Amino acid sequence: MSLTPKLLKDAQIKLNNTHNPVFMPQFGFGTAANADELEINKEAIKVAVRDAGIRCIDTARFYGGGKIEYAVGEAIEELIKEKVVTREELFITTKIWPNQWNKAQESLDKSLKALKLDYVDLLLQHWPICFLEIVNPATGELYGTPHDEKTGKPLYDETGDYITTYKQMDAIYNSPNNTKVRAIGVSNYAVSQLERVLADDTIKTKPSILQVELNPQLNQEELVKFCTKNGIVVIGYSPLGSTGAPILKLPEVNEIAKAHDITAYDVIVSWFIKKNLAVIPRSLNLQRVAKMKYYYDLTDDEVAKIDQIGIDKPYRHIDEDFTAILPGFTGRVKTENK
User: Fold this and answer.
1) For the CA atoms of the chain, what is the radius of gyration?
2) Are the C-beta atoms of 52 and 292 separated by less than 8 Å?
3) Which of 75, 176, 190, 233 has the smallest number of Cβ neighbours within 10 A?
4) What's the rounded Cα separation, in Å, for the pair 317 and 179?
């Protein structure tokens, strides 16, 4: 049975915990990439906005060793100059990396400069982690993921407290002169960490957003239920898994795709929208990006069938070594100083 396509650009969610009404597109474009992929990333962003009608762009201070934000900024600047879109029509997200856990304002200002923007729509704490500040002698910049050269173990700042980052973001957001941030939130928090933030009476504005890895193999059911109960919108990153998009090969997903004569990718995106979740896939394939336009109304049974994958065969794709100290992570993937 064929389904009627619906425009992704029309799917929006109203955020809670904001001073003024803020609506976020449910479908955004992720920009995580390597430093040597700046030009293709920039072009992908332009195709996403110009050809697919995407209005939500997700980036971060650490992507590409701090270089991706410059590509994002150039893309936005060119799109505005070409009158494809106005700044007000875009929803831009960036994040504070743990090597600046105690310097939220400095991180934000660096991001704004790189993005060539006066404000971001959403500022997130990237990880509830505090890294030591160690300068890379080759670049003069801080290591993003500092490791001990002898043991290879991640180097955390034992004097740090991850909640400090959010408290500084809260102070920025609630400053009487704030014009730089429209909403704040967190990424990669577990329920216990969210509970701590929600229980802290010194924090004026609770998170509007939680961004986590979320896909059929890691559907984060309990975390999503907790967020829904507390008015926190959930954004899923890595919706297709990791390298090679393994989620698109799942038989359950392909059965649903075949039944409706749509693609496995369409099924995954539609699963997110049906569950009232936001999603930020990424791609450097320009032809694929141009087709990121539609979603379809899956049945409740189809959604439940996809949900069951994460119950029967749970698997976390993003599990780098520095995450081993966090609930739900094992840190199985080795990373290096960068």
Assistant:
1) 19
2) yes
3) 176
4) 36
Q: Report which of 306, 333, 307 is spatially closest to residue 319, judged by C-alpha positions.
A: 333
pLDDT at 140: 86
Q: In 3D, which of 139, 108, 114 has the Cα closest to residue 126?
A: 108
The two three-digit tokens of residue 181, written as one number: 């941030």
Q: Give the CA count within 13 Å in the CB-facing half-sphere of 142.
A: 17
Q: At what angle do helices 264-274 and 251-260 cross, to 10 degrees?
A: 90
3.20.20.100, 3.10.50.40, 3.40.50.1220, 1.20.120.740: CATH of 6-323: 3.20.20.100
If residue 208 lies in a helix (H) or strand (E), which one and from where to where?
Answer: none
Residues lower than pLDDT 70 in the chain: none
What's the confidence (pLDDT) of residue 120?
A: 98
Find out whether 126 is annotated in a ligand binding site. yes
Residues 6 or more apart in contact with residue 19 via CB below 8 angstroms? 173
pLDDT, one tens digit per residue, over 249-290 is: 999 999 999 999 999 999 999 999 999 999 999 999 999 999
CA distance 225 to 234: 10
| Domain residue spans of the chain | 6-323
Residues 6+ apart with CB under 8 A from 174: 204, 205
Confidence (pTM): 0.98
Residue 138's pLDDT is 85
Catalytic residues: 63
Write the DSSP string, 252-306: HHHHHHHHHT--HHHHHHHHHHHTT-EE------HHHHHTTTEE----HHHHHHH
Pick the closest to residue 59 from 173, 163, 146, 187 (CA basis): 187
d(CA 148, CA 154): 6
Tell me the two tokens of residue 223: 């975390």
Q: Which residues lie closer than 8 Å to 252 by C-beta, 6 or more apart?
A: 216, 305, 306, 308, 309
Could you count the other beta carbons within 10 Å of the beta carbon of residue 118? 9
Owner of token pair 């697919």? 52
Element (H, E) at 337: none
